[in-house]
Design brief:
Elements: E1 3-8, H1 18-25, E2 30-35, H2 41-52, E3 58-64, H3 66-78, E4 87-91, H4 97-101, H5 107-114, E5 121-131, E6 135-140, E7 143-147, H6 148-157, H7 160-167, H8 175-185, E8 189-195, E9 198-211, E10 215-216, E11 220-221, E12 233-239, H9 243-255, E13 265-270, E14 274-286, E15 289-307
Parallel strand pairs: 1-2, 1-3, 3-4
Antiparallel strand pairs: 5-6, 5-15, 7-9, 7-14, 8-9, 8-14, 9-12, 10-11, 12-13, 14-15
């Protein structure tokens, strides 16, 4: 039986999962419990665990949204621990894209399943090194986006509508009005990809998503068929298009993934040390959290991490 060290975001999903929290607290193998109090707190808690824990049965249990899981993963990896501490997860956020990609279901389903897990499994995460837009190293569990989807994230995270929809259990619906609004303001930009011996120029990129699983944006299947167990990352790029074509693409994306057949959409499987260059100032997001705005010049690689799922 693992020993769970909990990092809980009490504000995730509008704080509407108190019944799940109470059920978790009743588990006999909860060793420590920490509620996050501010953005970035999970990074600090995870880093502390990684540096100090000597418990060989330790599993870090994250309760929250994709952002909480993202912060915890980055904190654990920033500590450069010799043996990684496995990550467990109960999704209580509004988007919950990782939960969809990992097929762990709702918060109650994930908790029920968690009680029967006996060993960790290795999943693929993304690693980026370079200017993004500041010089740093970051890890992602779902996606890194530049352009339209990042603008959508910014609008959604600052929307009063999101808080209302979270309160009635429809948080993922908050992304749709943000998508329509962001489209009218997002401009095309140039980007370059160096992928092995390929030098690829995209003169009018509009949406750029680096991903290791199917979903982003609260359940939108940007890359159907992607698998968290696959040891490769992908990039999906949509070029600037008319609003009518965008609606057609979005409808196809929501329906069956046939958006990948549009001539304005490019799908590239990334080789190790692929390089991404964007010289126009653009917004960016990572796992549904704002990264800021800037230019970009970074290297992309995949990495493995143990998850207790």
């Amino acid at each position: 039986m693992p020993n769970f060290y909990v990092i809980n975001n009490p504000c995730a999903g509008g704080g509407e999962q108190s019944n799940i929290i109470n059920d978790v607290k009743k588990m006999p193998n909860i060793v420590a419990w920490h509620d996050t109090k501010y953005r970035g707190h999970a990074v600090q808690l995870a880093k502390h665990f990684a540096k100090t824990l000597q418990d060989n049965k330790a599993v870090i249990l994250v309760i929250g949204g994709d952002g909480s899981l993202h912060e915890t993963l980055n904190g654990l990896l920033q500590a450069s621990r010799a043996v990684a501490i496995p990550l467990a997860y109960i999704p209580t956020g509004s988007g919950n894209d990782f939960a969809r990609g990992a097929h762990i279901g709702s918060a109650s389903e994930a908790l029920h399943h968690l009680k029967s897990v006996h060993q960790s499994q290795i999943l693929t995460i993304g690693r980026i090194d370079g200017d993004i837009p500041r010089q740093t190293t970051k890890y992602f569990i779902n996606s890194l986006g530049i352009g339209l989807d990042a603008a959508v994230v910014s609008l959604t995270n600052n929307s009063k509508l999101k808080h209302y929809l979270n309160a009635i259990g429809l948080g993922s619906m908050s992304y749709l009005p943000a998508i329509l609004s962001a489209f009218t303001h997002q401009e095309a930009f140039q980007m370059t990809i160096i992928n092995g011996d390929q030098y690829i120029q995209i003169p009018s990129a509009f949406l750029v998503a680096l991903t290791n699983q199917p979903y982003f944006g609260g359940g939108i299947a940007i890359l159907p068929g992607a698998d968290l167990h696959e040891t490769q990352l992908d990039i999906v790029i949509a070029a600037k298009m008319s609003f009518f074509k965008f609606l057609r693409m979005f409808a196809a994306l929501k329906k069956d993934g046939s958006h990948l057949k549009f001539h304005t959409v490019h799908h590239i499987k990334l080789l190790p040390n692929a390089q991404i260059h964007v010289r126009n100032i653009q917004p960016s997001q990572i796992d549904g959290e704002n990264l800021g705005i800037g230019t970009y010049e970074f290297t992309v690689n995949h990495q493995e991490y143990p998850f207790w799922l």
